[in-house]
Amino acid sequence: MTRKWIDCRDYPDDIGCTLYLSGEEDHVLRAAAEHAASVHGKQDTPELRDQLRSMLKDENGDVARLRRGAPSLPRREEVEK
Fold first, then answer.
1. What is the DSSP letter of 21?
2. Do residues 7 and 52 touch, judged by C-beta distance below 8 A?
3. Burial of 53 by CB count in 10 Å (0-12 exposed, 13-18 middle, 19+ buried)?
4. pTM for this structure?
5. Which residues of 26-44 are buried (b: 16+ CB within 10 A; e: fewer)?
6. Structure confidence at residue 61 as a pLDDT band (50, 70, 90)
7. Distance (Å) of CA 63 to CA 21, 27, 71
8. Strand (E) positions, the chain?
9. Contact, 49 vs 33, CB < 8 A?
10. What residues does 58 pair with on adjacent strands?
11. Least crowded by CB within 10 Å, which of 33, 54, 63, 65?
12. CB-based contacts of 23, cutoff 8 Å, min separation 6
């Protein structure tokens, strides 16, 4: 199953939220909806969850490491030199 991610920094608001969530789609969606309600004052409705679901992005290894601030892995050619 492809992991999903969402990052509040991609949707700036007046509080400058920096939350980044990643994991299985259902988990990220639930956490994002709870976060939107508790921090951003949104109503946790089916419409909000549909909107959040449309904002989820597929996570691949390099993107996930870079978004978490970890260095990317070297390419195979660089390792074999």
1. E
2. no
3. middle
4. 0.72
5. eebbbbbbebbeeeeeeeb
6. low
7. 13, 19, 10
8. 4-7, 20-23, 57-58
9. yes
10. 4
11. 54
12. 3, 4, 31
